[in-house]
Structure formats: structure tokens, C-alpha cells
Amino acid sequence: MPLAKGEFIFGYAVAFTMIAIVQTIIASSFAVWVCGLEISGSFWLMFAVAALDALLGISLGLMASAFARTEFQVVQFMPALVIPQFLLAGIILPREQLPGVLESIGDWLPLSHAIDTLSDVAAGTTDSDTAFSMLVIVAWIVVAPLVGSLTLRRRTA
After folding, report:
1. Phi, psi (deg, nearest 5) at residue 97
2. How many C-beta atoms lie closer than 10 Å to residue 87's C-beta?
3. Helix crossing, 110-123 with 71-88: angle to 10°?
4. Cα–Cα dist 97/67, whole Å
5. pLDDT on residue 68
6. CA 7, CA 124: separation in Å to the nearest integer?
7. What whole-number distance in Å separates Cα of residue 40 and Cα of residue 44?
8. How far apart are CA 89 and CA 4, in angstroms?
9. How is residue 41 annotated by DSSP?
10. What is the pTM of this model?
């Protein structure tokens, strides 16, 4: 069955999205009702942001897998995607304490927006910055698979 590159990636995205939504429901419910996580904001907004973050992970993974020629190359690409975000997103050191250039880079990485949005929702301090961060996450969710589909090599058997 002939498929366009975009359709191929979209099919994977739909399948992984269903799994991610189920995982988000389980993880969010477990954190709040079993582990006693207290949030000042809306549970449903926290769930929506967690679901967006799960979709973000799927999108970045699909982009990396589309760039790679083999499964081993995907594993090699992941540190290039994950480590800069881990170091510059504010997990280890607040972004405000980073040198100016690194702070600017960190401000555009998707993990930074995911952390900021979840922190705002948990604290109950959602505002226009929270909405902007959610828009940036959605933009990454849309653009990453599109970029991946442009680089996907088509093979026929």
C-alpha cells in the first residue's frame, strides 16, 4: 500500500498518541490519588499539560527516528536531543543562573516550556506566560514530525 512520508509518520504518531494518553491518565491519577501529590491548580489542566508533554516526547522521537538510517543511529541521536535539554531546561540549575547565551538557548528548548508550564499549573499561577509555553510545546509537537517527514528516506521492496 503506497503511503506518503507524512502519512507514514502520522500513522505512527496516532498509534503512539493513544498509548501516551493512557499512560498519562495512569501516571497523573496515581500521582494525585495514590501518592498524594498536592497541586494548587486544576487537575484537568495538569493532565492536559502532561498529555502535551507526552506528545512532545513522541514528536521528538519520531523526528529522531526519521533522521536515522538504523535503530542504532536513533540511540545515538537521543543524547544529542536529551542532554542539552536536561542541562539547559532548569532541572539541575535554574535557567536564570545560566550564562546569558545558554539561558537564551534554554528558553527555546521544549523541555523548558514543559517544566515551566507544569510548575505554573501545580502552583496555581497560570497566566499568559503559561499559555505561551503551551503554544511553544504545540509548535514543537507539530514541527518536529514535519521536519522528520522531510528527511525520511523512502524505500521500496
Report:
1. -90, -5
2. 16
3. 50
4. 33
5. 80
6. 39
7. 12
8. 35
9. S
10. 0.84
